[in-house]
Design goal:
The chain folds into two domains: 263 residues, Alpha-Beta Barrel (TIM Barrel), CATH 3.20.20.70; 81 residues, Orthogonal Bundle (Arc Repressor Mutant, subunit A). Helices cover 42% and strands 21% of the residues. A nine-stranded mixed beta sheet has the order 8-9-7-6-5-4-3-1-10, with helices on both faces. Strands 2-11-12-13 form a four-stranded antiparallel beta sheet. A three-stranded antiparallel beta sheet has the order 14-16-15. β15 and β16 form a beta hairpin. α1 runs parallel beside α2 and α2 packs parallel to α3.
């Protein structure tokens, strides 16, 4: 068994939003309540049948569940009884460890008192708030309906209710954003005493409304006021410096945490630990019973076929080359980087030698570091990580 796969993470996709943000290209949207009810029933059925699915495809399910993540969309839009139904299905199929990290994503101002009660009764101990910005003009420009003050009030309310682990998402690169306004969002996040902050550099997909306007270029959705790429890079560097000074250490390209509050669930993705995903466009990674290699599969991203339950899910068994590539580009997202010794245990020496040679040339450009048997990206390297991954994996190594 893969050394990290003693535990399992569960991911549940809830693809509903009150309204869709202009930059969003996820499989989420504003759907009528009747669709939500049908979706929850289909979700529960999928969870109930999931062990059988794994057995059929000869995939190993680790016994201990120590992280659960409800993402979206906006899971907090579920009715209290729908949320309770989802957790009942999860707990019936997958006994959870006493101290499991259980996260729900939410939009500020959209958690009713009744829903909060259900979350607490269901064992939720971590809430991730989609703040994006504490500056009202920036939020409005991308279709967010909350204010900065409402976000702070929501954080206080969740804390008072007993949620001891809070995350806020912030986005660098929103329309109208400046160094000064970004500084306000960073300092407000720090002042709110949250345990975790995720910072995303705005990536505008051409399939989003904002993306179509930027490519246009148009004047709706704040496209004309979007910061330049170089400013976005500066804002990201500013976040890294500001959070580090405030005790929120960066542990992954987009994530900062106080000691001990790193997202246990998200670490699974980067460390290639096992997780089982349920719902629209949910992805999973379990290991094959035969050879212990990773197997990946995902649900489709169209709501009606998912609810109808008539889509065939294809399981892809990852070969050694695929495992090598994943180990590099996922592992290097972490600030601690990857262990050369661990790579050497699993892959041919020739692959390692060629890899280390490339790392050394990137070290000369101050994009990577090699120290204490580990290699990692520098801060500058993290900003241009996609092109570095491309360079490190440019030539397919000869399969031994």
């Amino acid at each position: 068994m893969h050394p990290h796969d003693a535990t399992l993470g569960l991911y549940v996709s809830v693809p509903f939003c009150r309204q869709k943000c202009t930059f969003c290209n996820f499989a989420s949207d504003a759907f009528p309540p009747a669709r939500m009810a049908a979706y929850v029933e289909r979700l529960a059925a999928e969870i109930e049948a999931s062990r059988e699915f794994a057995a059929q495809h000869q995939l190993t399910i680790p016994q201990r569940v120590n992280s659960v993540f409800l993402g979206g969309g906006t899971p907090s839009l579920l009715e209290p009884e729908q949320m309770a139904r989802v957790f009942a299905a999860l707990r019936a199929a997958y006994p959870m460890e006493q101290d499991a990290e259980i996260t729900v994503e939410a939009a500020p101002g959209q958690i009713s008192d009744e829903l909060l009660d259900v979350l607490l009764q269901s064992g939720v101990n971590r809430v991730s708030l989609g703040v994006q910005s504490f500056v009202d003009a920036e939020s409005r420009a991308v279709g967010r309906v909350h204010t900065g003050d409402a976000c702070l009030a929501e954080l206080k309310r969740l804390r008072a209710a007993g949620i001891r682990n809070l995350n806020v998402d912030l986005i660098a690169g929103l329309p109208h954003q400046t160094v000064e306004s970004w500084s306000h969002s960073l300092q407000t996040a720090i002042g709110s005493d949250v345990e975790h902050v995720s910072v995303y550099m705005l990536e505008v997909d051409e399939d989003s409304r904002l993306g179509r306007e930027l490519i246009g270029p148009g004047v709706r959705y704040g496209a004309h006021a979007a910061p330049t790429d170089s400013l976005v890079t500066d804002l990201y560097a500013q976040a890294c410096e500001t959070f580090d000074a405030a005790g929120l250490a960066q542990y992954e390209i987009s994530n900062f945490a106080r000691p001990g509050y790193e997202s246990r669930h998200n670490l699974r993705y980067w460390k290639r630990d096992a997780y089982f995903g349920f719902g629209l466009d949910a992805h999973s990674m379990l290991r094959s019973q035969a050879d212990g290699r990773a197997s990946r599969f995902a649900n489709g991203d169209e709501l009606d076929p998912y609810i109808a339950g008539n889509e065939a899910v294809e399981v892809e068994h990852i070969d050694m080359l695929g495992e090598w590539e994943e180990s590099i580009f996922l592992g290097l997202r972490l600030v601690e980087g990857v262990s050369i010794a661990e790579l050497r245990e699993s892959f041919p020496a020739a692959w390692l030698d060629a890899f280390v040679e490339r790392v050394q040339s990137l070290q000369c450009d101050e994009l990577m570091r090699l120290e204490d048997g580990r290699t990692m990206l520098t801060q500058q390297g993290r900003i241009v990580s996609s092109s570095i991954f491309g360079e490190l994996l440019a030539d397919e190594p000869a399969v031994a």
